[in-house]
């Protein structure tokens, strides 16, 4: 509601003109593109869990996945790990589900770097952000891919005598082992491609919003602006869902493309409503559905 009120206060005439320009089919398409993002990412998530040896009923699994979106507005989106509580009932260990979430974040970050490169060549000031994100992803992939690391941690847990130090080491070793299995070259490439497609769909939705506001920004530039703004929001990981940082960068880049400030603000707010807050709404609906219809053990065979 705050975002809706903010969008209306910034440029009520522009908001109504954008909605009128897009019309119901256009507005539906923007939301459908966000929905496509969630669908592609869910299929990638299912692939992760299948690789880890778990097959869940698709409908129930989808509800568990979407329910995490209810907690997207949390620092570094850590609240999405709530789906681990649901998956535990199907035999998915916490180390496996958290590893899947970690790898999902890594692949999304890599996809954003690729998409952000569409605009960063024209905005060299943001190049350190993109390069830094790329180096971070590569460093984490390399570290997690060290096969001997889990064994080293397990050996340390047997030699140390301080419980506070030793207790987490086996769990960390299991998490690294599961993450390494999901970062094999084929899965890394397929997962990154899925990230490019899914987040590119939301970038396309942002482009449609800009067109509705009569902002003449090229398609690839609009997608690049959206991705770069997401990277900026991710850099401020202590902010819930990058709130503030993402809006600032998106608005600044759109103004640099020649859009008036009020129009750029309106486009940014509409984009966040159609992506972030639409996801939160879907997540809340999924979480309520799960709580109202809890699984009955033994009555839901996996496909």
Q: Care to describe what's here?
A:
This protein is mostly helical and 303 residues long. It has helices at 2-51, 58-67, 83-87, 94-120, 127-144, 148-159, 163-166, 168-182, 185-212, 219-235, 245-256, 261-292. Helix 1 (2-51) packs across helix 2 (58-67), helix 1 (2-51) crosses helix 4 and helix 4 (94-120) packs across helix 8. The chain is globular and about 65 Å long. Mean pLDDT is 85; it is low at 297-303.
Topology diagram in text:
Blueprint: H1 2-51, H2 58-67, H3 83-87, H4 94-120, H5 127-144, H6 148-159, H7 163-166, H8 168-182, H9 185-212, H10 219-235, H11 245-256, H12 261-292
Helix pairs in contact: 1-2, 1-4, 1-9, 1-12, 2-12, 4-5, 4-8, 4-9, 4-10, 6-8, 9-10, 9-12, 10-11, 11-12
Radius of gyration: 21 Å
What is the residue-mean pLDDT, rounded to a whole number? Answer: 85
Class from helix and strand fractions? mainly alpha
Strand content: under 5%
SSE topology string: HHHHHHHHHHHH
Number of strands: 0
Number of helices: 12
Number of domain modules? 1
| Shape, per Cα inertia axes | globular
Major β-sheet annotation = none
How many angstroms separate the termini? 40 Å
**Helix-residue proportion:** over 70%
Residue stretches low in confidence (pLDDT < 50, at least 5 long) are: 297-303
Concise synopsis of the structure shown:
The protein has 12 helices and no strands.
Keywords for this entry:
303 residues, mainly alpha, 0% strand, globular
